[in-house]
Design brief:
Blueprint lengths: L6 E6 L3 H10 L7 E7 L3 H10 L4 E3 L2 H6 L5 E4 L6 H10 L3 E5 L16 H5 L3 H22 L3 E4 L6 H13 L3 E9 L11 H4 L3 H4 L2 H19 L5 E9 L5 H5 L15 E8 L4 E7 L7 E8 L3 E7 L6 E3 L19 E3 L5 H4 L2 H14 L7 H20 L3 E2 L2
Parallel strand pairs: 1-2, 1-4, 2-3, 4-5, 5-6, 7-10
Antiparallel strand pairs: 7-11, 8-9, 8-15, 9-10, 11-12, 13-14
Helix pairs in contact: 1-13, 4-6, 6-14, 7-10, 10-14
The structure holds nicotinamide-adenine-dinucleotide.
């Protein structure tokens, strides 16, 4: 900050993501900063979060948070439909903003409140694309007008393996020919993730947004570094599906992979074509056992990288019985502690969340854009909803 005072962070929403943020902001080094307030519409949640993380103020109304002079940066850890209105309000109040992925989503925001879940998820995909991209563009416009930062919370781009691969890729001056990346696990157990009106889609937007963001960022960096011009995605073809409806699985008693999906896909695959003809192959699934899988492979004209965000073999452990490790945490979405496992020594570090929070606080301190901004979030939204169009139309869709 210009006056060198402590940067005050306001957390919005005290749920799942906010826990990661609290741990990571507490570890920011070299820049005086602190979480000064939290807001959640559920008062017990806000109060418990404030107590647990020693935060001086808790509130239930977002507008009150924006009035606090000690808040310089708001971090939106709230459901997708609130990202646009909260970003616009924060920008008007002169606060810098962190918005998690996805930057925006189509959740029926252009339809009357009484519209049924079914009518929302059945909406024409081209309309979804128009509305979601329109929201994302409005967010970018609002922050540009207000002169504040909008930082896009894509942790993959800050993960140690992707950062190192990016540095080596830039050093090599080579051409990225193909990328393959995906995020999979045994399925979200949040009831909201199974309904389009709350998430704006299924596995593609919830999980696939990560590799899509990383791929768009990498090709952008490659182009800027070598030729001074970004290499953009130009088209996408995709398929989506509900693997939990496969008849033999329906007949099985054990529910190892999540079921009960109302109107969203739990499996998706997309091929993104970039301006120079290179390709990104994306997959996302809520039907994969073995713990959280987040991987990105980069195939270049002069190098190859395999980024293992999760799991990785930093630590391999064996126990003959699941009870041996008691209540100890192993890794996200791990089904069992028996047999071989890969306990994660520091998931906040390997996932990139830690470096991302550090980078965001530094960006506010220097009043300079972060590596991931609203424009990247906008490109991800455009790619995701164009992929949904492709899946329904059964053909490749140009990114307008
Ligand atoms: N790796 C990642 O980047 C990652 C991981 C998980 C979730 N997310 C994103 O984070 C966002 C939140 O997901 P989550 O899993 O933490 O959800 P969650 O349901 O666990 O938490 C959301 C919280 O927001 C609160 N809330 C709702 N409306 C509010 C309002 N008007 N004002 C203040 N608080 C309000 C809810 O009470 C709840 O406590 C979503 O956009 C999701 O896509 C990102």
């Amino acid at each position: 900050m210009k006056n060198n005072r402590e940067i005050g962070i306001g957390i919005v929403g005290a749920g799942f993501l906010a826990e990661t943020r609290a741990r990571c902001y507490a570890r920011v080094a070299g820049v005086p900063s602190r979480v000064v307030a939290v807001v959640d519409t559920v008062d017990e949640r806000a109060e418990a979060y404030a107590r647990q993380h020693s935060i001086p103020k808790w509130l239930t109304d977002y507008r009150e948070l924006l009035e606090l002079p000690e808040v310089d940066l708001v971090d939106l850890c709230v459901p997708n439909h609130l990202h646009r209105p909260m970003t616009e309000a924060a920008a008007s109040a002169g606060k810098h903003i962190v918005c998690t992925k996805p930057l925006t989503a189509y959740v029926g925001q252009d339809l009357p409140a009484e519209t049924s879940d079914q009518d929302i998820s059945a909406r024409d995909r081209r309309e979804m694309l128009r509305v979601a991209v329109g929201d994302a563009e409005a967010m970018v416009e609002a922050v540009d007008k207000a002169g504040v930062l909008l930082m896009y919370g894509e942790n993959w781009i800050y993960s140690p393996s992707v950062v190192k691969a990016t540095d080596l890729m830039l050093e090599s001056k080579g051409t990225i020919l193909e990328m393959r990346g995906g995020e999979c696990h045994c399925g979200s157990h949040s009831p909201f993730s199974k309904i389009w009106r709350y998430t704006g889609g299924g596995a593609l937007i919830r999980l696939g947004a990560h590799p899509i963001g990383a791929m768009i960022h990498l090709k952008h960096q490659e182009g800027m570094n070598r030729d001074g011009v970004p290499i953009r995605p130009v088209s996408v073809s995709a398929e989506v599906g509900d693997l939990s409806k496969i008849p033999s699985l329906v007949a099985e008693k054990e529910e190892w992979v999540a079921r009960g999906w109302q109107d969203v896909e739990n499996w998706a695959s997309a091929i993104i074509t970039f301006q120079d003809g290179s390709r990104g192959i994306v997959w996302a699934s809520d039907a994969v056992l073995g713990g959280m899988e987040s991987r990105l492979e980069i195939f270049m004209s002069n190098a190859q990288f395999k980024c293992n965000l999760s799991p990785n073999n930093m630590l391999q452990a064996f126990s003959p019985d699941a009870a041996v490790f008691g209540d100890a945490y192993i890794m996200e979405k791990n089904e069992t502690k028996a047999g071989w496992s890969t306990p994660m020594p520091d998931e906040d570090w390997t996932s990139g969340h830690l470096a991302m929070c550090q980078a965001f606080v530094e960006a506010v301190s220097k009043e300079q854009p972060a590596r991931t901004d609203g424009r990247l979030g906008l490109e991800v939204v455009r790619t995701v909803y164009s992929a949904y169009c492709s899946a329904v139309e059964g053909r490749r869709v140009e990114l307008s």
